[in-house]
Recover the amino acids of this structure.
């Protein structure tokens, strides 16, 4: 999660000079190119299967929509502020887990979700019109990312992590290539380097996410997303000179506290189950 804001930070630099569609294409195209050597390094075979193909496609579309909306949001708002809004995704994921995964969410975690959403009100404070558009795009991105994580969890037992990542990169590249003729500006050397960096960081970070979701439950892992604020704030401060204001930090604190409480309740719920399994 510390690496994801670095990918988004390179995208924010790029969207200032290149169309969003082209930047999204670069994120997936170079994600695909940097992913293939991993198959050789880890001695994995390419095994495409029609099993649960519709779920793989849905998962890829959720992440593609998330990426497009968030990169577009970064044209309007600072990186750390965008990540602050994006922190609603673990709360959304916890709220949707019963519906999509059949995971039980008790009343304490529901209360934490509702309190966490009040924290987003501090982040989504009235702003200038351009910033409001950016915050709306970031919130839509958070919703799609929550769906992506839930779909990843659902697919974790039916596809190797690298294959899941390959499906996502392949679908994203093919779909965005359709838009490329209408949204293309020839990059200079710096532009190409940033496009490659965006794709490579996407490969590494999302491979780690997929591996994590193989082991832990969606609601248990959700709070780790908050680690993004560390690198997002540092990147935004060093590269763009932006630092979140007090209202934004207040909102972040409420959302993070809610997420950590959800993790606490999840651990308490799982402990008796593990003891029962051990004694059996």
């Amino acid at each position: 999660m510390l690496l994801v804001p670095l990918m988004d930070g390179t995208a924010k630099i790029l969207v200032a000079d290149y169309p969003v569609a082209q930047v999204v294409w670069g994120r997936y195209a170079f994600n695909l190119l940097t992913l293939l050597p991993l198959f050789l390094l880890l001695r994995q075979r390419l095994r495409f299967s029609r099993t649960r193909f519709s779920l793989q496609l849905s998962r890829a579309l959720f992440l593609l929509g998330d990426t497009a909306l968030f990169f577009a949001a970064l044209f309007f708002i600072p990186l750390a502020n965008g990540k602050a809004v994006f922190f609603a995704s673990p709360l959304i994921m916890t709220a949707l887990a019963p519906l999509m995964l059949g995971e039980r969410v008790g009343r304490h975690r529901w209360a934490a979700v509702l309190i966490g959403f009040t924290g987003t009100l501090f982040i989504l404070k009235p702003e200038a019109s351009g910033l409001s558009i950016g915050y709306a795009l970031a919130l839509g991105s958070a919703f799609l990312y929550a769906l992506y994580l839930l779909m990843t969890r659902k697919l974790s037992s039916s596809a190797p992590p690298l294959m899941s990542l390959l499906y996502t990169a392949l679908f994203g590249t093919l779909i965005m290539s359709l838009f490329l003729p209408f949204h293309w500006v020839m990059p200079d050397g710096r532009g190409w380097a940033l496009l490659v960096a965006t794709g490579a960081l996407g490969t590494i970070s999302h491979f780690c996410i997929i591996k994590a979701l193989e082991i832990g439950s969606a609601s248990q892992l959700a709070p780790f997303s908050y680690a993004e604020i560390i690198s997002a704030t540092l990147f935004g401060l060093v590269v763009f000179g932006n630092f979140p204001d007090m209202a934004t930090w207040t909102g972040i604190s409420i959302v993070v506290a809610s997420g950590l409480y959800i993790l606490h309740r999840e651990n308490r719920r799982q402990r008796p189950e593990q003891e029962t399994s051990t004694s059996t």
